[in-house]
Design a protein that fits this description.
Helix content: 55-70%
Structural class: alpha+beta
Strand order of the largest sheet: 2-3-5-4
Order of helices and strands: EHHHEHEEEHHHHHHHHE
Distance between the termini: 24 Å
Strand content: 5-15%
Number of helices: 12
Number of domains: 1
Radius of gyration: 24 Å
Length: 352
């Protein structure tokens, strides 16, 4: 049985953790927005430099250089239409994704919604726990509660607002955790809802997808397109074409891991005790390690598991279980178990 007996415990300042990680999340989201706007600005520069503009300062005659185009766009002497268009597309895409995200998250699962009228004893206990944590978290609406019929242990929250929120938990998690541990996991998931993590993660995902499509179009246009070509501009586009995917992956992982630390701290805040959360994480990790091959097959047999991986309370790749064979499975969306326990105030005894 997973236990914190082999760890040295200390008090943890969860308030400071929440403040620090909230600040870091804002910085990461700001970076996403700035990079996105820069890509849109780059599109504007390409369009302007390829357009005949009757200006005496144009070089060669009739065309602007990249630096001239940048100056005129920054001073709004030429309206940055591409940047504005990309901003509108991003906004609409984010709103559409928010609207359907909760349904997308359950795709491929054998799940059912549980209510007080339909729940058995264990499900009723879960429903009661979520009600308790909802009150403790100060949420106005009770999230929908779903059970996923799967033996592995995991849970996630979804929804673009408190009113649309849902919490999903696997049958394995429900059956293998004691009440306090289950309460800590639900406090973690409701903290995601309270901290608006779903909105931030989806925003980062949408901005990344649009950016990568646009930079690909710029890249192929610069390489194979006809007309005036600016060597410095082409160099920047090529550089971004190969660096931007790595940059966005690193930023997305940093955001995801930061939000997990916040949700862990939020669970401690609601529980007023860090031990149940630490025990739950240890138990989940040990269960995955023990049943690695079985869970590997279960994940691969369930569609869209990669979509849910970043939202789960525990990333199965940390125990060597990979939902698919894509390159994304090589990167963990969550901090390591050791780092999460340390943030909760636990360090392994005799650890060097």
């Amino acid at each position: 049985m997973a236990s914190t007996a082999n760890f040295d415990a200390r008090a943890t300042d969860w308030r400071e953790q929440l403040r620090r990680n909230e600040k870091r999340s804002k910085q990461i989201i700001l970076l996403f927005v700035l990079i996105y706007l820069f890509v849109g600005f780059l599109v504007d520069i390409v369009i302007v430099t390829h357009s005949l503009i009757p200006m005496e300062s144009a070089s060669p005659p009739g065309y602007l250089s990249a630096s001239q185009a940048a100056y005129l766009l920054l001073t709004f002497k030429i309206t940055p239409l591409a940047t504005i268009t990309m901003a509108v597309i991003a906004l609409l895409s984010i709103l559409i994704t928010y609207r359907f995200h909760d349904k997308l998250m359950l795709l491929g699962t054998n799940s059912k919604e549980i209510t007080p009228d339909s729940a058995d004893f264990a499900e009723q206990q879960l429903y009661n726990i979520i009600e308790e944590m909802k009150v403790a978290a100060g949420l106005r609406y009770m999230p929908k509660v779903y059970i996923i019929e799967a033996g592995y242990m995991n849970a996630f929250a979804s929804g673009y607002s408190e009113k649309s929120a849902l919490v999903a938990i696997t049958r394995g998690l429900l059956s293998k955790l004691d009440r306090a541990e289950l309460q800590a996991v639900m406090a973690h998931e409701l903290s995601h809802i309270r901290h608006h993590d779903i909105k931030l993660n989806l925003m980062a995902s949408v901005l990344t997808s649009i950016m990568l499509v646009v930079i690909d179009l710029l890249f192929y246009g610069a390489i194979f397109g006809r007309g005036k070509k600016d060597g410095r501009l082409i160099f920047i586009i090529i550089l971004l074409r190969y660096l931007l995917p790595t940059i966005t992956i690193l930023l997305t992982l940093a955001l995801s891991r930061t939000r997990e630390y916040m949700a862990d701290a939020g669970a401690v805040e609601l529980m007023r005790d860090n031990d149940p959360m630490a025990r739950a994480l240890l138990k989940i990790h040990n269960d995955y390690s023990t049943n690695r091959e079985e869970y590997q097959m279960a994940f691969k047999a369930t569609a869209h598991e990669e979509l849910r991986r970043a939202s789960y309370i525990y990333d199965p790749t940390l125990a060597g279980v990979r939902p698919d064979d894509s390159i994304n499975s090589l990167f963990s969306t969550h901090p390591s178990l050791k780092k999460r326990l340390k943030a909760l105030g636990y360090t392994q005894k005799n650890a060097t």
